[in-house]
């Protein structure tokens, strides 16, 4: 019997924006008009984030269970607005990643030896512009709103050097896209959802620097 194919790691590059400059996106909502625009069905997302003593946060790695499915993201560069990640969804690869960082060899049934640090629900609207750019507007149940423009590609067997090159090209494409359609995005400092969550809860990570990798997550 053929073995089940494991999900390939995903390279993800995103740029956050403060909020949309229009009530909703339409193909001809500004000049220049989008070449194409497709609206996706809205989603309700329930996220639970895990860490222990900020050990993942301090290494630029974070873990969540989104609608019951595990996702780990390893930051590969960028800052709180312009972020680059490798994403893992295979629990075995996630367990190996967490083991390398924490030394804990535990599976998903024990939350990889980590503890819950945040939990909230997001209402997400998504549009696909010009055939490949995902424009997202997230509204969280604790009153925060933030958006992002995102590109994703499968990493396959790319080397670390190749991954960095690919993500730099993806980032440049997003920057050019947002500059071209600047009418759609409100200027201003975007605040990541985890930073906003901790501000709402009057808590910051133990490291005391919420502008780092935690600020960049989606």
From TrEMBL:
Q: Which domain of life is it from?
A: Eukaryota
InterPro entries per UniProt: CYTH-like_dom_sf, THTPA, ThTPase_euk
What CDD domains does the entry give?
ThTPase
SUPFAM superfamilies listed in its UniProt record: CYTH-like phosphatases
Instruction: List the molecular function annotations (GO) for this entry.
Output: magnesium ion binding; thiamine triphosphate phosphatase activity
One GO biological process term is: thiamine diphosphate metabolic process
Q: Could you identify this protein by its name?
A: CYTH-like domain-containing protein
